[in-house]
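User: Could you go from structure to sequence for me? I need the amino acid at each position, not a summary. Structure tokens:
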């Protein structure tokens, strides 16, 4: 399972807080590593600028997380929220806390490229795509969820990353 995000650190949080921000906290299953102790919880913080449009986006994000027991909306202009954010950035015991920032320019690895090709050949067959063709693949984030954007010969679509990672083609009869 692909986890492209970086761990939240005190230095990173400090740099982000040079301007007021909102942060939405949620459970983040992609952050659990195979060698990780099962008692460790993985959490994702999604940041939003502190203005009216992004406040509405952060509130919508919170509504989408109704069943998430870890959901919380931080407002960096509130002192008690700043203290909680600072604590989270120290990676307290039992938690791995990520922020929705990519540590470097993202590029699909070979395994994911094969899965994308397989997905396209079976699910987007009307595109007449061939793995030999040049395909533009980008990673997008929306409300804490990851999507793969596919652009090919003027056609484009976005597919939830889980759908591509878990796609198993039906046997041909």
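Assistant: Here is the amino acid at each position, in order:
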């Amino acid at each position: 399972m692909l986890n492209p995000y970086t761990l939240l650190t005190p230095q990173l949080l400090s740099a982000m807080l040079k301007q007021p921000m909102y942060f939405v906290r949620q459970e983040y299953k992609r952050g659990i590593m195979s060698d990780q102790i099962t008692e460790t919880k993985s959490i994702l913080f999604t940041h939003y600028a502190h203005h009216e449009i992004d406040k509405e986006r952060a509130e919508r994000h919170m509504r989408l997380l109704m069943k998430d027991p870890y959901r919380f909306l931080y407002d960096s202009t509130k002192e008690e929220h700043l203290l909680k954010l600072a604590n989270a950035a120290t990676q307290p015991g039992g938690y791995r806390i990520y922020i929705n920032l990519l540590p470097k320019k993202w590029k699909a690895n070979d395994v994911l490229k094969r899965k994308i090709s397989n997905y396209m050949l079976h699910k987007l067959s009307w595109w007449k795509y061939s793995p030999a063709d040049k395909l533009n693949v980008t990673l997008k984030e929306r409300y804490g969820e990851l999507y793969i954007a596919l652009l090919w010969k003027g056609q484009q679509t976005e597919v939830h990353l889980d759908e591509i990672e878990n796609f198993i083609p039906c046997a041909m009869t």
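One structural detail worth keeping in mind: The chain has two domains: 6-99, 110-165.
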